[in-house]
Design brief:
Length: 370
């Protein structure tokens, strides 16, 4: 993959201080000596002074070459510019009643991880789990059993440095891993796997499961939004997003906030993310487009296709093709995110250099022939 060279100072100036850090954990996962996190941002007590650092190399916001990644992961580039490369789109749900009871929607991610662990195909999975001491605050967690996976089930809606879990598992000697993450986590994982400069054992991550994501919320801003409808976050039993509403379940009662009113609680870095459907995962999973109690599943890589096929054959999943109406619902949200956030990307990008030409991003189309 095309690489730029940079170090921790470059990472701070180009990403952290520019409010582009997505708090994925990639920079600190393999540089524990220098990088820690404060206020959900990487920080250093001292600089390593490397000319080219893994922190800069692995960060999804320093540089990212989507078509290089697609060729490496899928063998070819996308034909669908909205959803990315994929083989098929399904609607699916877990067959295990226990998973159905505990899961966010159809329980597909929990079922896939349970299959991988119980079949011995992986010995750990890096996931996000709600902290026991802090309501709804997610933290990296290395799951090694179905019970662990069940304990981490459900969407979190605030950001978590899941890549730290990958680093922990590799340091602990795990031989084969799965990663469950948002689009930013998936992009970081692919950069780590495809790095030509640093080998940290990322080939041990043999399954990458991505989650649909419009945005994540800043925790303090989320609490303020909940306070507007007289809800304390520690009383919330479940969050969900359906039909343009942010749904909050408290003591069995469902309250809602229009999702457009939640934009003020969005993390700043989410405003420049172009990826809704975790386009570089082996399998992408969400709820948009499927009926209640089911998940939409985008099967992307050969590895992802084998995983879903085996999970169905072994009785972990049931699937059927997603309707055209369901696919269009996914495309609608993906298109909305791309269009809204491309304006933010253009606003921050400045002029682009094409060989000797400097061009404003929003005017680039005037130079290109159809």
């Amino acid at each position: 993959m095309v690489e730029e060279k940079g170090n921790i100072t470059d990472l701070e100036s180009k990403v952290v201080y520019a409010d582009l850090c997505c708090y994925c954990g990639a920079c600190g996962a393999f540089c524990r000596e220098y990088i820690t996190y404060e206020d959900e941002k990487p920080t250093t007590k001292e600089k390593c002074y490397e000319y080219h650092g893994a922190c800069y190399d692995f960060c999804p916001r320093t540089f990212f070459a989507p078509f290089d990644v697609e060729r490496a992961v899928f063998g070819e580039v996308r034909k669908d510019n909205v959803l990315g490369y994929y083989k098929e789109i399904l609607t699916a749900r877990a067959k295990d009643p226990e998973i159905q009871k505990r899961a966010q929607d159809g329980g597909v991610v929990t079922a896939l991880l349970s299959y991988l662990l119980e079949s011995g195909k992986i010995d750990a999975a890096a996931v996000a789990k709600t902290a026991e001491s802090d309501a709804w605050k997610p933290e990296p967690f290395v799951a090694t059993s179905k019970d662990d996976v069940l304990a981490a089930a459900g969407s979190k809606y605030t950001q978590c440095p899941v890549l730290l879990g990958v680093g922990d598992a590799i340091l602990d000697g795990k031989k084969s891993l799965a990663l469950v993450g948002l689009p930013c986590h998936v992009q970081a994982m692919r950069k780590i796997q495809l790095s030509e400069s640093f080998d940290v054992g990322a080939d041990k991550v043999t399954a990458v499961i991505g989650l649909f994501c419009m945005e994540t919320f800043d925790m303090e801003a989320l609490k303020q939004k909940l306070a507007e409808i007289d809800v304390k976050i520690e009383d919330v039993e479940k969050f969900n997003i359906k039909k343009g509403k942010f749904l909050i379940t408290v003591k069995g009662e469902e309250k809602s906030i229009p999702i457009k009113d939640m934009k003020g609680a969005m993390r700043p870095a989410c405003r420049v993310c172009y990826d809704f459907a975790a386009e570089f995962a082996d399998v992408s999973v969400g709820s948009v487009g499927s009926e209640l109690g089911w998940n939409t599943v985008i099967v992307r890589s050969e590895r992802g296709a084998e995983l879903v096929k085996e999970a169905v054959e072994k009785g972990y999943l049931e699937t059927q093709p997603l309707s055209e109406e369901g696919i269009n619902a996914v495309k609608t949200l993906a298109t909305r995110k791309k269009k809204e956030n491309m304006k933010n990307i253009e606003a921050q990008a400045g002029k682009l250099k094409l060989l000797n030409m400097l061009v404003e991003p929003e005017l680039l189309s005037l130079l290109l022939l159809e």
